[in-house]
Amino acid sequence: PQPFINKYKTPETLGTDRIAAMAACSFWHPHTACLVIDAGTCITYDCLDEHNTYTGGAISPGLTMRLSAMHQFTGKLPLVEPIHQADASGTDTRSALMQGAKYGMIYEAEGFITYYQNKYPALK
């Protein structure tokens, strides 16, 4: 049993991590639209509306997966280990790959937040 209305078209494929996130929103923020962003191997974006209904979300590659894909699916790009860099500009191929993956994730998340804030002005 789930403490929210699950409108996901294939509920049997919905991960337990995503179900748990929506259950927590339902419990901690009843009658409030909530967006949960979970960053790991993949990044998930899941939203529960103010009527306690889950209609879906999004899944995208996490940082390591992005870096691996750029190496694996190109002929010459190196495999880069995730590192922290303060400057957003890549000054060589390795730092450009890192910054592209990192800031791609950040701007993606900002885009999802903006989308859901426009849809649900009282979004948490």
Key words describing this protein structure:
single chain, 124 residues, alpha+beta, 4 strands, 40% helix
Task: Explain how this protein is built.
The chain is of the alpha+beta class and 124 residues long. The chain is 40% helix and 19% strand. The chain is built from three helices and four strands, in the order βαβββαα. It has helices at 16-28, 63-72, 93-119; strands spanning 5-6, 34-39, 42-48, 53-61. Strands 1-4-3-2 form a four-stranded mixed sheet, sandwiched between helices. α2 (63-72) crosses α3. The chain starts with a strand and ends in a 5-residue tail after the last helix. The model has no long low-confidence stretch (mean pLDDT 95).
What secondary-structure arrangement, pairings included, does this model have?
Blueprint: E1 5-6, H1 16-28, E2 34-39, E3 42-48, E4 53-61, H2 63-72, H3 93-119
What coarse outline follows from CA principal-axis ratios? Answer: elongated
Percentage of residues in DSSP E strands:
15-25%
Q: Quickly count the helices.
A: 3
The percent range for helix content is: 40-55%
Record field, number of beta strands: 4
| Rounded Rg | 17 Å
Ends: how far apart? 24 Å
Order of strands across the widest beta sheet?
Answer: 1-4-3-2
Mean pLDDT: 95
What is the H/E order?
EHEEEHH
Structure classification: alpha+beta
Low-confidence stretches: none
Outline the biggest β-sheet: 4 strands, mixed
